[in-house]
Design goal:
This protein is mainly alpha-helical. The protein has 11 helices and 2 strands. Helix 5 (about 135-160) packs antiparallel against helix 7 (about 190-225) and helix 8 runs antiparallel to helix 10. The chain is globular.
Length: about 300
């Protein structure tokens, strides 16, 4: 059996075994990738170029779009290349880079979503303090903290995972390098160190989830006290896209990570990985632009 010092590459999961299906998967992934690039690129450009969108809410939305671009660009291009060229391999360094950047973008995105719930809480529950609590310096500091948390998380997990001795082959049962799949190749009890890090990360995620939940409980209580129906509708409409994005990310990620082993199978693992790594970056621009007239107008103005 090879050990980690002799492994120079990993073999990723083949999405299909016939050439026709491989090409079909390539075109499907290419369409999804281009849609994600277009949607997130339009949002990023519109927010950056339109001075009317230079507000805390849109500043954090810009960060979310950039993180979505990075997240989907970490996994899909290699999967498309393997499907197109009928290969499965990824270099050891390439696999480590995939793990690092995917965790970085995903962790930072979750932090940004947590900050965005705080933004909506202040906007609705403490509107008179909005400009003070969410000034440009405070927004930049919170965004930097989110990106820094992503870096720290990815460094710890990547270093811990790739310091393990591997002796169970080099076949990764996923279409990209994913930590749980790599841990299955380990032959040392040292993998418990990485499991401990994962448990700690999950506890932090639950803490962020509790903060988001608390924010929305306060938001709903404040909205229900608004006397006019039009005012309640306007307040809810600013929160629904964020709530939908959070629900999409958490539901897929939690089910992928916390489902019992009895429900695990190669097809289900692949489906869950696609749901939490591909679907949110693709759908987030659609969710945010559907009910946001300001964003629609900015994109329309930029295109015309």
């Amino acid at each position: 059996m090879p050990n980690s010092s002799s492994i120079s590459e990993f073999l990723l999961l083949a999405l299909a075994h016939t050439r026709q299906l491989q090409l079909l998967h390539f075109w499907l992934l290419l369409g999804i990738y281009l849609a994600a690039l277009l949607g997130n690129g339009l949002i990023s450009t519109a927010v950056a170029c339109d001075h009317r969108l230079h507000t805390p809410m849109y500043f954090f939305l810009l960060n979310l779009a950039l993180l979505d671009l990075g997240c989907i660009s970490t996994t899909l291009p290699k999967a498309m290349a393997n499907a197109l060229w009928h290969t499965r391999d990824i270099s050891y360094a390439g696999c480590a880079a995939q793990v690092f950047f995917f965790l970085f973008f995903l962790s930072a995105e979750y932090c940004i979503l947590t900050i965005m719930s705080y933004d909506r809480y202040i906007a609705i529950c403490k509107p008179l303090h909005y400009g003070t609590l969410l000034g440009s310096r405070a927004c930049a500091t919170m965004a930097a903290a989110a990106w820094g948390t992503g870096v720290l998380t990815s460094v710890l997990h990547t270093a811990s995972t790739f310091s393990l001795p591997l002796c169970q082959g080099n076949a990764v049962d996923q279409f990209f390098c994913e930590i749980p799949q790599i841990l299955q190749l380990s032959c040392s009890d040292a993998y418990l160190r990485e499991v401990g890090l994962i448990v700690f990360s999950v506890l932090v995620l639950f803490g962020c989830f509790a903060f988001i939940l608390f924010s929305y409980v306060q938001i709903f209580r404040a909205v229900m006290r608004i006397p006019s129906e039009q005012g309640r509708h306007k307040a809810f409409s600013t929160c629904l896209p964020h709530l939908a994005v959070v629900t999409l990310l958490l539901s897929t990620a939690f089910f992928a990570g916390l489902r019992p082993p009895s429900l695990s199978s190669q097809a289900l693992d692949l489906t869950m990985a696609v749901l939490y790594s591909v679907v949110p970056p693709t759908l987030n621009p659609i969710i945010y632009s559907m009910r946001n007239q300001e964003l629609k107008d900015a994109v329309r103005k930029m295109i015309s």
